[in-house]
Design brief:
Layout: E1 2-6, H1 12-20, E2 27-32, E3 45-48, H2 55-68, E4 73-75, H3 80-85, H4 87-91, E5 96-97, H5 103-110, H6 112-122, E6 131-133, H7 136-147, E7 153-157, E8 167-169, E9 186-187, H8 189-196, E10 205-209, E11 215-223, E12 226-235, E13 238-241, H9 245-258, E14 264-271, E15 274-281, H10 288-295, H11 299-307, E16 324-325
Helix pairs in contact: 1-11
């Protein structure tokens, strides 16, 4: 069984380990534009991907890669939506793809604006106030409107992954009081405006109130035995999976609305005791291994077997659920390139 991970983030190293388990039947193939990605270390074969190509060109590359390398299972991350929209082409190569065939919903979730528009009609109480800016002037107007009704405003690109563009506008970041505080993702309003006046807005910018409460990252998978929902309450490096009744019901409502049959991650954040939707990632999350370690439920392995037509047994743990911590550790990648 040859399983291909394309240009994933480094923590896919753990996802491959979970998917492999004790089986000697699986061979993992990894590819990336960066030959030093950590997850490649967990792969039996490693390849370089093309850079600076269009979605259609990349899909062509993926289809040919599956044909040439005799890939049985493709686990996509890069250009996931475009892969889903062309899934029949992978059927033609005999490759099963761990992605939902509901590509229309995937396109919706790929846009934060469209995601909020969808849930505004379905579960409006979880949608925070948001404004989309298509120019620097709209950005400034949106900030003024939001700032009049909230403490702090944050922004990010309308299409983003891994919170790369996420920033919190904080007027204290340039003051003496910030001397001993790490700035993190904070910027002053003046800096934000300066950046926006240089930006082309090819991808619009989404602004919303900064939600100051705790964050929940729920790792989910629909199965024939019922839906797996693992709400991971995050506290820095530490995480606790808690089967909180209200959060479980909310995640179930979300799953029922989007109807995706592959692993996904629902991100929620609290403000004044209320949970709001941040985003939904229709793939295995970067912290999924923490949820699996805490509960003993191996979502990557269950998902792989479901794709192959096998339903593995699973059950929620009984008793206390241990806290897990994300610990960085050295990993020797090989000689310097």
């Amino acid at each position: 069984m040859r399983i291909w991970f394309n240009h994933w983030f480094s923590t896919a190293y753990h996802l491959i380990g979970l998917m492999r388990g004790e089986s000697a039947e699986y061979e993992f193939i990894g590819s990336a534009t960066n030959s030093n990605m950590a997850y490649l270390k967990a792969c039996n074969e490693r390849y370089t991907e093309p850079e600076n190509v269009s979605e259609s060109e990349y899909v062509d590359f993926c289809v040919e890669f599956c044909r040439v390398h005799k890939i049985d299972v493709f686990v996509p991350r890069r250009n996931l939506v475009a892969v889903a929209e062309n899934i029949e082409r992978f059927d033609g190569t005999g490759t099963k793809v761990l992605v939902s065939r509901n590509s229309k919903m995937l396109r919706t979730l790929d846009s934060k604006t469209k995601t909020y528009e969808f849930f505004s009609k379905k579960i409006p109480e979880i949608v925070p106030k948001t404004l989309t800016a298509h120019s620097a002037a709209e950005f400034e107007d949106a900030y003024s409107e939001l700032k009049s009704n909230c403490g702090r405003v944050c922004y990010k690109l309308e299409t983003d992954e891994g919170a790369r563009s996420f920033r919190v506008i904080d007027e204290n970041v340039d003051k003496l009081s910030a001397l001993l505080n790490a700035p993190g993702m904070k910027v002053s309003y003046e800096t934000a405006v300066k950046i926006m006046r240089q930006y082309d807005f090819e991808t619009p910018v989404l602004l919303m109130p900064y939600l100051s409460g705790g964050e929940i990252s729920s790792d989910c998978l629909r199965t024939a035995r019922g839906d797996i929902i693992l709400p991971r309450f995050k506290n820095g490096r530490y995480s606790n999976v808690k089967f909180d009744g209200e959060i479980m019901k909310l995640c179930q409502r979300i799953l029922d609305e989007i109807k995706l049959e592959t692993p996904l991650n629902i991100q929620l954040k609290f403000e004044n005791g209320r949970p709001y939707l941040l985003e939904i990632n229709p793939r295995m999350s970067g912290g999924l291994q923490l949820s699996c370690a805490s509960t003993g439920i191996n979502i990557p392995q269950i998902a792989l077997n479901r794709l192959l037509g096998n339903e593995l047994p699973w059950e929620y743990p009984k008793g206390n659920i241990p806290t897990v911590v994300n610990l960085e550790t050295p990993l020797v990648l090989g000689e310097h390139q």
